[in-house]
Every structure is written in structure tokens, then in C-alpha cells.
Amino acid sequence: MGSGASKAPAEKPKPPEPAQPAAETPQLDIRLPYPHFRELFTMKNFWKTVRRNEKDCGKVMLAKYLNDFPENKDLYPKLKNVKAATVDMNCSDPGFEAVAAQYLKVFDDVITAVEEKPGDVQTACDRLVAVGKMHRQKVSGMNVSMFQNMEEPFILMVKHVLQDRFNEKAEMLYRKFFQFCLKYLLEGFNG
């Protein structure tokens, strides 16, 4: 005897779920010096090493700047106890450490703003313009070349922290970044 029970129709196999689309490469603000996101991505990854060593990095950069331009020490009241021509990253003078941290923070703030919105870097530009204006208003005797003079100390700092990872590509990425910063610092200073 048959059970008379009908068999439930077999379920159709579900079609495979569509693959998740690959994350789109973010569009970059045309003000950035990088034509491809990959360059910005690489520069940001290198910067993580700077962040992990920020105290030493700031001191390396400021020491190099003062060694190269000891005459500029007088523009910094906090550096009154520092011998500009011979200061090095081992200096523990509180004024030196404070200025070094402030200078590095400007670059870090800009990179953070660019990381947050690579398609609209207005926040980064505004920060740089504000720093330029502040120097114009508060640092008597300052001239535009003093901003440009920070490029080599900045590159030396990156080279120091990256060590064997510093190569032509890293140098090019950071020179482009510095020139981006310089453009907006000068806009604020000359404004």
C-alpha cells in the first residue's frame, strides 16, 4: 500500500552570491601631489614608522634645521638654552623638545587629514595656511625661505627613521609631500 504522502518538491539550489565588489580606489583631491592612490598609500604606511618614533623624529628634524641654519635660533624664544650649531637628537632641553614636537605635529596633522578624506584635503590645506599665517603674525624676522629650508631636515628625519627602507621612491614621495605642505604654508604666510 502506498502511503499516499506526497513528496515535497526538491528545493532549487540557490545561485551563488555575487562576489563582493573590490573596494574602489579612493579618488584623490587634485591638490595632492600624487596621481595615484598607491603613492599616497605607500607614503602613509611609511609615516606609521614616524608616528611610532615621533619624539626622536621631531628632534632629528629640528636639530638638522638648527645645525644648518643656526642664525634662525633667535626666532625661537624656547630655544634660548640650546646651542644651535651643535644640538643633536639627544638634546633633552624642554624648549627644544617642545618646538620639535610642534613642528612634527604639523606634518602629522596634515597626513591625518589627508588619510581621513583623500578626496577633499581642504582640512589639511586649512591647517597649513593657518600655520603660515601664525608665523607671519608671531615670528618677526621670518621670511619665506625659512619654510623651504626645512625640506632637507624633513627628508633626513624620514631617512633616519626608515633606515634601510628609505629609497628613491620614499624620498620622492616625501619630497612631493613637503612641497604640497610648503605651497599652503606660503599661501598663509604671504596671504
UniProtKB/TrEMBL annotation:
Gene3D superfamilies: Globins. Residues 1-28 are annotated as: Disordered. InterPro entries: Globin-like_OT (IPR050532), Globin-like_sf (IPR009050), Globin/Proto (IPR012292). Keywords: Heme, Iron, Metal-binding. It comes from the Eukaryota. GO terms for molecular function: heme binding; metal ion binding; oxygen binding. PANTHER family: BLR2807 PROTEIN (PTHR46458), GLOBIN FAMILY PROFILE DOMAIN-CONTAINING PROTEIN (PTHR46458:SF5). This is Globin family profile domain-containing protein. It comes from Caenorhabditis briggsae.
